[in-house]
Design a protein that fits this description.
The chain is mainly alpha-helical and about 500 residues long. It is built from 21 helices and 4 strands. About 60% of the residues lie in helices and about 0% in strands. This is O-antigen ligase family protein.
Length: about 500
């Protein structure tokens, strides 16, 4: 079967399609589809196209790189017309026919993932080579066992725990075995992320321009809603994604200044979501990136210095002249300030629930004492802190599993990180930082981003751990990268890679 598939992949039309999926044009085209779907309510067609892309890639592509685009971007095709979130409150996703449709797509996706693993020998094996596997296995067990043995255990904890485990680690494992990583991977991922951030920013602009969220000169945060999430979700995803702009600004030989400016624009979008946690984490990243790119040797160092000064001066002048307008428009920031918005009580509630069942917790669906009545069709009330959430829902076992995971991730950090490894680390830290005050990492799509960046960080960071954690580090084998040819249409993986479907059928016959 492998021989026939590889022979088909050699056909001129198939090679052209594979080159398109491997190129930067595919994320742009997919981003346009996501926007059209979100504006026009085309989810049925949009996710059908996504499923076809996944199936085609898993069967014919030399590696799984094209799948990064839908992993990062698919959810943003959910429309305002069909969202179950208030104030729209559509019952579209409650329809039995729609649920059966998406269930069929999900089954197809799982089947083709399994086919990829079974039909094609993989170049790497998560269960033998991953340096994060102990923490991943422990956390998966903690998610599946959430609330077990608790007196008020509900069966809903099991499928939700499975959903958490899959969203955290499924794509880490899949891409560990199927993704070919070279010196161009970081730039390709960053480009996808920037396009994704652009999709979110355009959706945010649509909300501000057409949805009437400015009432009496102030933004009504309660109706700042996209099809796929509320204001905090929008701000959180933008804050996770906009660091990619600064990485591309550093790496680009020409036009890096445009990415640098775009990073500031996207941060402005974060602020306009009125998400205080996202704005805080985003501001820390912005300042750090501005300082780093003003110091580090790169084609845009001079531009970064000049632009930073201009932004500071213009910002001071704008605040002085437009202070009343800014204060009214962003009134939520000034009204709430450093108010905890009930988080301290939530955390205390979580600790009390933890004490009811300290080993495996009370489960994700154990009600809060003072529920904030989340209006969502999947997720239960949560504690807005990753440590409290794990303690309450998964007990001391869940917290210890997460600490093991954190230590393993820290062990892979380079002593002298490159710009690429910094990009991965900053993205992971942004997700972690926002999850100290919000629920981002326990929502499926931020967890999927976390899953992919775990892999990228581990595979890029090959030279050693932080000195503090050296005794815990297991030295990995040195990897040999395939030579790259500047301007080539694609970089061929090593000959031993079983998923290099573009090799000739004759070579495949000899190999088998």
């Amino acid at each position: 079967m492998r021989q026939k598939i590889r022979a088909v992949a050699q056909l001129p039309a198939m090679r052209a399609m594979l080159r398109f999926f491997d190129s930067f044009y595919f994320p742009i085209a997919y981003g346009v589809l996501a926007l059209l779907s979100s504006f026009l309510g085309l989810e049925i067609a949009y996710f059908a196209i996504t499923a076809v892309t996944v199936i085609f890639t898993c069967i014919f592509a030399r590696d799984s790189k094209p799948l990064l685009t839908p992993v990062f971007m698919a959810v943003y095709g959910v429309s305002w017309v069909h969202t179950p979130q208030p104030p729209f409150s559509s019952d579209f996703f409650y329809s039995k026919a729609v649920q059966i449709y998406f269930l069929c797509l999900g089954v197809l996706g799982i089947a083709v993932f399994l086919f990829r693993f079974i039909a094609f020998p993989q170049d790497r094996n998560f269960f033998k080579e991953s340096k994060l596997r102990l923490g991943i296995i422990l956390m998966t067990a903690a998610f599946l066992l959430n609330g077990v043995f608790y007196g008020n255990y509900t069966i809903y904890n099991l499928p939700f725990g499975l959903l958490m485990a899959l969203s955290f680690f499924l794509f880490y494992i899949f891409f560990f075995n199927t993704l070919y990583i070279d010196e161009n991977t970081g730039v390709h991922v960053a480009r996808i992320i920037v396009v994704t951030a652009g999709v979110i920013f355009i959706q945010l602009a649509k909300i501000y321009i057409f949805d009437g969220i400015i009432v009496d000169g102030s933004v009504n945060k309660d109706i700042l809603v996209a099809g796929w999430g509320m204001s905090n979700n929008i701000g959180g995803m933008l804050a996770m994604f906009f660091p990619a702009c600064f990485f591309l600004a550093y790496r680009a030989k020409r036009g890096g200044w445009a990415f640098y400016v775009l990073g500031f624009v996207f941060f402005g979008g974060v602020c306009l979501t009125l998400s205080r946690t996202s704005a805080l984490i985003g501001a820390i990243i912005l300042v750090a990136a501005a300082i780093y790119l003003s110091i580090a040797k790169s084609p845009i160092r001079r531009f970064a210095r000049i632009f930073n000064c201009v932004v500071i001066v213009c910002g001071i002048i704008a605040l002085a002249v437009l202070w009343d307008f800014v204060r009214d428009l962003l009134a939520v920031y000034f009204e709430r300030g450093f108010d905890d918005s009930g988080r301290l009580e939530l955390w205390a509630n979580g600790i009390r629930n933890f004490l009811k069942a300290p080993i495996f917790g009370t489960g994700f669906y154990e009600p809060l004492e003072n529920s904030y009545d989340i209006e969502n069709w999947v997720f239960p009330d949560m504690y807005h802190n990753i440590f409290v959430q794990l303690l309450s829902s998964c007990g001391i076992f869940g917290l210890l599993a997460y600490l093991v995971h954190i230590v393993e991730v820290a062990c892979g950090v380079k002593k002298r990180p490159t710009a690429e490894s910094l990009f991965y680390i900053v993205t992971l830290l942004s997700i972690f930082g926002m999850s100290l005050l919000d629920n981002h990492i326990f929502h499926v799509f931020p967890a999927m981003v976390y899953s992919v960046f775990l892999l990228l960080s581990e595979r890029e960071g090959e030279s050693g751990p932080l000195l503090l954690l050296r005794p815990l580090f297991v030295r990995r084998k040195k990897q040999v990268s395939a030579p790259s040819v500047e301007g080539a249409a694609e970089v061929q993986p090593p000959a031993r890679a079983g998923n290099a479907l573009s090799e000739s059928a004759a070579t495949d016959n000899n190999a088998n």
